[in-house]
Amino acid sequence: MANSVVTNQKGVLVDLTKCVGCGSCTVACKMWNNQSFQHPQTEEFQNAHGVDVELDSNTWTTVDHKLVEKDGKEVWRFVKRQCMHCLDPACLSVCFSHSFHQTNEGAVQYNPELCVGCRYCMIACPFDVPKYEWEKVMPSVMKCQFCSSKLADGEAPACASVCPTDALMFGNRDELLAKAHEIISSDSKYVNHVYGEKEVGGTSWLYISDVPFGELGFPTNLPEQSVPGNIHEFTRFTLPIFAVGATAWAGISMYTSRRHKVHEAEHGHHDEK
Amino acid sequence: MEKHEQTENKGMSRRRFLSVMAGTGLVGAAATMTGCSPVSDPSGTGWLPNQYRNASAMPVKVKGRVPLAPENVSLVRNDEKCILCGQCLEACEKVQSVFGYYELPVLDEFICVHCGQCALWCPTGAISERDDIEKVWNAIQDPDTYVVVQTSPATRVGIGEEFGMGAGAWAEGQMVTALRKLGFDMVVDTNFSADLTIMEEGSELVERVSHGGVLPQLTSCCPGWVKFVEYYYPELIPNLSSARSPMMMHGSTLKTYNAEKLGKDPKKIVNVAIMPCVAKKFEISREQFHGLQGGAGHYYNDDTINDMDYVLSVRELAKMIRKFLPDADNFANYEEGKYDQIGSTAGLIFGNTGGVMEAAVRSAYKLITGNNPPAGLYDLQPVRGLEGIKRASVNVPGVGEVKVVVASGLANARQLCEEIKSGKADFHFLEVMACPGGCIAGGGQPKTAVPPQDWVREARTATVYEHDKAGQIGDTNEKGGQDLYLRLSHENPMITDIYNEFLEKPLSHLAHELCHTTYVDRSSHLVRKDV
Amino acid sequence: MSGKRWSFKITPIRIAMFAIFAVTLVMYLYRYYVGLGAVTDLNDAYPWGAWIGADMNVIALAGAGFSMAIISHIFHAHKYEPLARRCLLMSFIGYVLVLLILIIEIGRWDNFWRPFVSPNLHSPMFEVYMCIVAYLVLQVIELVEVVTEKVAPKVQQKMQSIMPIVFIAACTVPLGHQASLGALYLAMPAKLDAIWASQMMPWLFVFSSFFIGPCVAIVEYIWTSARYKMKVDTDMLYSLSRISAVLMAIYFVAKCADIVVRGQVGNVFAFNMTGNMFLLEMLLLTVVPIVIHLTPFGKTKGGLLTFGISGMAGLVLTRLNVVFTGMAAHLGGGYFPSFLEIFTTVGGFCFAFLVYLYVTENFPFFYGVAGDAEGKPVGESAESGFNQAIM
């Protein structure tokens, strides 16, 4: 499925080796999106960074503090999580009321006006990103919007703009991808993998790391085919099913009906056994 | 559909439903059906400081904030108040040379020397000291405990600012009164233990100079500086004076010497310190001061005794006074209370950058020559003032030129460390205070100007020197009702007492147990960046 | 419509069911007032719970409507026509039940119409949605035709011209519907346990819901016969069960092939939760019914009943395994349906059951062969028979 609407695909390259866990990005996100620091369901105050902090409808990005083993020593690694902004997004393709759309810059944006609340996007997202406003009477799905209005103005998204160590690098995705490969090929400490380059068809957000991604909580069993591509292997049969089905039934029906009549004509009245 | 109608009919009376229905009513439906599909972007309804509203490729210099571990013992941050102004990072990197001086990726620690400059710079108060008021108040309320409070030299020129007394106002007496009103059982003065530090550290210096020890000797009063050395310059740990900071000497001697004099059970004594500093909260958490490794715990062979129990910053004390004393707004007019201990004004000037050096020189002169220092050493101008690095040399008969250097602000200290490392250092004694201007502008002092400004530092410094110059530490004394003038640590009668009655002499075995400590090499927690 | 002949016998169990349904309605209002989070255990890790599980099962079993229609109308196996009618009724009630559950399950019930004006043709959910709507419309037409046969013959005659198209459509739409339910889970290839995560899932879903039709029909027939003390035509049921058994065997082979091709044999026989649940599913859905069918027991009333119930249980398990067992490893154990979720689901089933009883008792031609029921309104004996059957 070609994304004709995306003419200026942006991206962010996250160099996990540069993150110091300051959480600036999480604060920038809350500030720009005017969100409180209360957990929407428990109503407890919580920072959006720390050990085991999770995304919620009020927290579109988190920095997960992970104590992992590296060369026999325990080290902190800080993993920023947010919507990956897939090039071919699962949420967009599974939403039956088209509540998701892509902007010119490749931001996968959610439009609450159209949402029916089936929550299929939540369960379909390979990264478990969309979260629900369970506490609300009229809830919406919530997730990172890639600061679509900032992107449209030529600005970096809030999180990437505040990073003091340049762990978050914003730019054109193809350039960032080339840069990522350049970095990992010139420095042996990196794992030879750009996460998001190929996962589920590629994502706007790209990660490089010196610790295997699986240890940092990234799903590592994702296929290279996008979710919509996977579904499309079925949906392309939708119209054929109906056409072939209807034709087949009509044909069979006429055939069996005629056979009955012939049968009846030959053997007198009914004998259906 | 039948259900729908019921729901709406019963629910209509509620305002909640009205608003829902209004928002999603026929108008919206019609608008959508006619193609005017409402697209609403749930993001971007807030704001960000202007520096971040930049073209993506344009590098912004002031951005982000310091990394702060959630379990940091000194500092906490309320993300709700953080506006990402970037000031904390400026302080941490430019003033203290902590952030940005280690290679990424990080290892197993959030690198922090607990100096608290970030808290001083923070315009919204998002970063603040870890609040220990509750714990101290509970200890005071506990009838079983004997709560002793000590106040650092610099507190008395800071606390008044919290009560409208003007920058650098002298509020020693008022503070002592307030502490007594709060219910502390004993109010002692860290100026006393500063005198003790001079005796120990000065003796150590004389020892090193006369017996060819490791030089230059580095002061160890400032826990931020000590941790900085442990992180970045572990090779200089032998240079650090083994003398504890005054607060920690006070802690161990209060639970031993004073406990015995008072006939108190050391386990029932709770040591509280009012400090212009938040690194002190970290210092008391060092395991070298806990249980058997600590002074008092080792003395009694009791694992449950720690040398110090709680540290409150000056800001916390002010908060506590406001919270628990109904007449707090009358603080400026409190009667002038007296300490249960006395300290010299040599101890008092510990609060200023250069103060430890000046006090040490005064007593070292006596230690070496047997005579009190000449008049010039009571006003050692080269080590005074807010300049980041100050060099001086003192001619001591019998020893010759003693070269001393004073630095405040860790970025300045870093230059001197590099100097020592490269072998270019020709000085004998280096005093470092992590905070620019010394303790009088410490991370726990009132935020009278944000970010901290020199006019406040100058006012506080001036008050300290003024009182040193007067030399008057009390208008009465037990020995005859006369004014007491005391500008030399070694002349403090209580110092004489403690050595006569308990410690015997500086650097004695017991003094080593109670007044000295060891350091740990923390360099494995980071990869130093070459500068 | 004259109400004279229409009656509804009140029994304690029916009162209880009615009470449960009434409470369910109150719970509906409460849920609409406080929102999903307050009354369900659904959460960000578990956005789909008991309600979706119930819907998946009801739809799967409601496949009996189209499968029996295909057998009797398309293949013109007229002897099964009465069974097809009952299945049509049950299927219709099932779909209404699904709607009833969905309308509290979705978060923005006020936006239910959005997909009509803002459709996403690529979404399997859109196909599910459109098929539910289309099939409900078709079922209403079919039911009107059945009902008017006795009540308003003139209307029925006029409808005859469109009925062939309706029949064909009603046999086609559910194909897409059942398949798209399976396709829903094609979106989670990395989340769903590999035992189930197959590209074949949509087709296996259609197929299983098709061959379960006879099972449902057999169970319903035997139960209704007991209710009205009618003779059970085991020969007819046996020949019907043969259709199912043959298709089950094909399904079994297809499923095994799917497992082998995707290299999942090891996982199936890992003797862990997922492996065992899969084995149980296959056992109940295919092995047990096929074995019963091949033995003389399969020709008895008890054998046929066991055949049908085992198949239905197996089918329920296939759907639950996909919704819960297969997703559990990814989603974690953070969900157990709340009291309200369980109660409203039970309440929905009570509603469905009451409607079924009401309709069958007032439109007797839904059961029994035409000759049996014709002109024979529900009598005392019939009702007491029913009472014996269910109480």
Going across the major beta sheet of chain A, what is the strand order? Answer: 9-1-10
Q: Label the CATH architecture of chain B.
A: 3-Layer(aba) Sandwich
Distance between the termini of chain B: 74 Å
CATH topology of the largest domain in chain A: Alpha-Beta Plaits
Q: Give the quaternary arrangement of the chains.
A: heterotrimer
Specify the biggest β-sheet of chain B: 4 strands, parallel
| CATH structural fold name of chain B | Fe-only Hydrogenase (Larger Subunit), Chain L, domain 3
How many distinct beta strands of chain B?
Answer: 12
> What are the low-pLDDT stretches of chain A, counting only 5+ consecutive residues below 50?
none
Give Rg of chain B in angstroms. 27 Å
Describe, in plain words, how this protein is organized in 3D:
The complex is a heterotrimer of chains A (273), B (531) and C (391). Chain A is an alpha/beta fold. Chain A folds into two domains: 10-226, Alpha-Beta Plaits (2-Layer Sandwich), CATH 3.30.70.20; 237-267. In chain A, 30% of the residues lie in helices and 16% in strands. In chain A, a hairpin with a 5-residue loop joins strand 5 (100-102) and strand 6 (108-110). The radius of gyration of chain A is 25 Å and the shape is elongated. The mean pLDDT of chain A is 92. With 531 residues, chain B is α/β, with parallel strands linked by helices. Chain B has one domain (133-515): Fe-only Hydrogenase (Larger Subunit), Chain L, domain 3, CATH 3.40.950.10. Chain B has 19 helices and twelve strands. Chain B has a four-stranded parallel beta sheet with strand order 4-3-6-7, with helices on both faces. In chain B, strand 3, helix 7 and strand 4 form a beta-alpha-beta unit. In chain B, helix 8 packs across helix 10 and helix 8 packs across helix 15 (355-369). The radius of gyration of chain B is 27 Å and the shape is globular. With 391 residues, chain C is mainly alpha-helical. Chain C has a single domain (12-375), classed as Formate dehydrogenase/DMSO reductase fold. Helices cover 74% and strands 0% of the residues of chain C. Chain C has 16 helices and no strands. The two termini of chain C are 32 Å apart. Chains B and C meet through helix 1, helix 2 and helix 3 of B and helix 1 of C.
